[in-house]
Specification:
The protein is an alpha/beta fold. The protein contains 13 helices and 22 strands. Its EC number is 1.8.1.4.
């Protein structure tokens, strides 16, 4: 006999656990099913998904540790602080990261109890349609159990994309999971892919002393970014020591006891070879749909492996929704969370909403890169007339005081209405500063609106104001 729920969520990542919590808050009987153990010492399934266990959270912990080490080594002297003999204990750094992850997963368990969400540890698949809903089979450590639900949310996330002919063992050749737990700093590190994950993980180990070479197939660096931002960041990364190779074609990759050898053709068509101790393969992610048995309820994946949904994340089968990396759109944790809340509220009869035009993007390197809305190249392609305002952090007193004046803020606004269409930031606090831009765009603010708001002095947020004023050549401090 199966246990009956109003809502069953498959997957306990950001989209799944947030959807489950919101549905619980709205008075529904909810279960959330998760089978992935990640690196749990007991082999128990862990809540939080890729983001919490082997993605966003652990990578940010390592980025913070490595940045502290680099500051002590190279920037403390600027403040009059003399440090000699600084060393990095890699094992302790990794343990700190693991402890943070364990604390966060425990936090989700507490939230589930608080909101009366039942956590089921196992792998779920659809069995078929039943009266009043759907039946699922859950494979647990104790065997199989059946659950039924009036409505289902698929939130199974994504996994690292691997390249044909390159065997990822997460020891010598690694994806994001292996790159988060190196036992020592590699002398030479190769990274295939100059995307967000590749740049972040490459930055971690470069700061700790690795000689890092990045191989990217695309001819243009950070093609998704505003062109001005991409050009500036390429200069900064190169100055930091990341060796960037764009427009390459990867050939044979050989792993041995000594390390990895990567044959590739450079942008000029010349044969090259990269020998390194470790290799990170970071070439995007693919949806997790294996084993769901979607056919049992009349669903299937599209040519990209995604589950097709409408504007409110409902699939072609009424009562089954999908959110996050398993559907169209940006593979971002906060996008999945917004979709999870929207779906739960729709299930409760409310007007759930997710504005895809105001979802921010962030690269957590040093400095960070953050943006929301349109880039200049997109506006040009759309034929939309716009005006741009840009202001540097080097003219900001707080940035100078913090010893971190790299980067700028760029505001793009409609040439006629002055509505803010996009904001792009390079700064070590860009991930926080972008929130003001998201809020402004959500409420259809103009650049003048931002320019007329009083910003605290001295603060980094003043640069956002100055960039907005610069749209009409009204900047006051530059």
């Amino acid at each position: 006999m199966s246990t009956q729920y109003d809502v069953v969520v498959i997957g306990a990542g950001p989209g799944g656990y947030i959807a489950a919590i919101r549905a619980g808050q709205l008075g529904m009987k909810v279960a959330c099913i998760e089978g992935h153990a990640y690196d749990d010492p007991k082999g128990e399934p862990r809540l939080g998904g890729t983001c919490l266990n082997v993605g966003c959270i652990p990578s940010k912990a390592l980025l913070a540790s490595s940045e502290e080490f680099e500051k002590i080594q190279h920037h403390a002297e600027d403040h009059g602080i003399t440090v000699t003999g600084a060393k990095m204990d890699v094992a302790k750094m990794i343990k700190r990261k693991d402890d943070i992850v364990t604390k966060m997963t425990g936090g989700i368990q507490y939230l589930f109890k608080k909101n009366k969400v039942t956590a089921i540890k196992g792998w779920a698949s659809f069995s078929g349609k039943v009266d009043g809903g759907f039946e699922l089979t859950v494979k647990t450590a104790a065997g199989e159990e059946k659950v039924t639900a009036k409505q289902v949310i698929v939130a199974t996330g994504s996994k690292a994309r691997h390249l044909p002919g390159i065997t990822v063992d997460n020891e010598t050749i690694c994806d994001n999971e292996g790159a988060l737990k190196f036992g020592a700093v590699p002398k030479k590190l190769g990274v295939i892919g100059a995307g967000v994950i590749g740049l972040e993980l490459g930055s971690v180990w470069r700061r700790l002393g690795a000689d890092v070479t990045v191989l990217e197939a695309m001819p243009n660096f950070l093609a998704a970014c505003d062109e001005g931002v991409a050009k500036e960041m390429q200069k900064i990364f190169t100055k930091q020591g990341l060796k960037m190779n764009m427009g390459v074609k990867i050939g044979e990759v050989k792993a041995s006891k000594k390390g990895v050898s990567v044959a590739y053709t450079d942008a000029d068509g010349n044969a090259q070879k990269l020998d390194c101790d470790k290799l990170i393969v970071s070439v995007g992610r693919v949806p997790n749909t294996d084993g769901l048995n979607l056919e049992a309820v009349g669903l299937k994946t599209n040519e990209r492996g995604q589950i097709d949904v409408d504007a409110h994340c409902q699939t072609l089968v009424a009562g089954i929704y999908a959110v996050g990396d398993v559907i169209r759109g940006a593979m971002l944790a906060h996008k999945a969370e917004e979709e999870g809340v929207m779906v739960a509220e729709i299930m409760a009869g409310q007007a759930g909403h997710c504005n895809y035009d105001t979802i921010p993007w962030v690269i957590y390197t040093s400095p960070e890169v953050a943006w929301v809305g349109k880039t200049e190249q997109q506006l040009k392609q759309d034929g939309r007339k716009y005006k741009a305002g840009q202001f540097p952090f080097m003219a900001n007193g707080r940035a100078l005081g913090q010893g971190d004046s790299q980067g700028f803020v760029k505001v793009l606004a409609d040439a006629t209405t002055d509505e803010v269409l996009g904001v792009h930031i390079i700064n070590s606090h860009a991930s926080d500063l972008i929130a003001e831009a998201v809020m402004a765009m959500e409420f259809k603010a103009s650049s003048e609106d931002i320019g007329r708001i009083c910003h605290a002095h001295p603060s980094l947020s003043e640069v956002v104001k100055e960039a907005a004023l610069a749209c009409d050549k009204r900047q006051l401090n530059g």
